[in-house]
Amino acid sequence: MNDAEEEQQDHIRQYVDQGCRKAGESLLSPYQQPLYNYLLGLLRNRADAEDCLQETFLRALKGLPRYEHRGTFRAWLFQIAHNVAHSRFRADQRQPIRASEEELERQPADIPHPAQTLETREKIEALENAITKLSADQRTIVLLRLRSDLSFREIAEVLDMPVNTALSHMHQAKAHLRHILNP
Amino acid sequence: MTSPDHSSEFEPIEEQGKEDELDQLVRSLPEESAPTGALEKALDEAAATTMGRRSFPPLPILAKVVFGLAAVLVMALLALSQLQSDDQQPEEGTPLALTNFPARETHPMLVEPRISKRVDRLRSLRARMTERRSSLASLTQFSPLRTHKIPKSNQL
User: Which residues of B are less than 8 Å from A123 in CB distance?
Assistant: First the structure.
């Protein structure tokens, strides 16, 4: 166990044993941005992503007394986020991959890029649209790997699949993206 | 079914997923800053749900002293009221006042005739029992079932 993991364990103990709010905050706040990136990329809706982020944190806080140190804490958190997002999809009866046309049109406008040139904006828009056209597993892996910086071992843990399968999905996803961007 | 992981036999996993231009392009996509309230709300909600389960924190010494004094005071008051109520108890042989009886209980004046009736009934029952016992005793004395030896003089 390295220093960072030991610190995490200390925070977990402090939160579980003493109900220390600050320990809970220190434990989870570093994952706020990567989790939000992943949820927003998957759900493509700010309100849904925010709801799911809150639900992820709540489930994590409630699950901390039962947390066992296997794999990484980050992978455990992303697994919760992944389950929360998929529960939301099931509840909404929506497809996780194919966002509605309205959402696709709205998404680039949601994110302000004042300093970007038109060409860059077009590139970004094309890339974002291309990502939405990937399959569920491919899109999830692209988001986890490139938007949330998870390792392939962690991705395999989150998606409960062998590392080789995760690598293979990533390879296929990139080939698919290249094909969409450069037909 | 899961296939065995042979990736580490050849080269590190992260090496297999080597970064290229496309990866960098995806990574460079602008990101929206995460809402800060989500973690706060989750912490509040988690605290609210665990509050009920968590045991009460230990009481400070002052609170313990106050509780102790209050308990002693209550006990003293109870003892005092008990003594006062003992003083109000009627002396032996003194007829109880009507007001001392609860409303639902029957007054002794109303109960007395019933008791005397029962006593009469018991007396008559006892008399009948004595009568029967004596008649039974006489029956056993001259019972035809009893075998008497026939005197020899009376034998044929």
Answer: 25
Residue B91, both tokens: 């002396």
DSSP H or E run through A181: helix A163-181
Give the DSSP H/E element, type plus range, for residue B132.
helix B108-141
CB pairs A-B closer than 8 Å: 106
B positions 130-149 inside 8 Å of A (CB):
none
For chain A, the structural domain boundaries read: 3-181
Which chain B residues are closer than 8 Å to A84 by Cβ? none
pLDDT digits (tens, 9 = 90+) for B88-142: 655 555 555 555 555 555 566 666 777 888 899 999 999 999 999 888 888 776 5
Please give the ipTM for the structure prediction. 0.75
Q: Options 1.10.1740.10, 1.10.3720.10, 2.60.120.280, 1.20.200.10; which CATH number does A3-181 get?
A: 1.10.1740.10
CB count within 10 Å of CB B110 equals: 8
Q: Could you tell me if B107 and B101 are in contact, meaning their C-beta atoms sit under 8 angstroms apart? A: yes
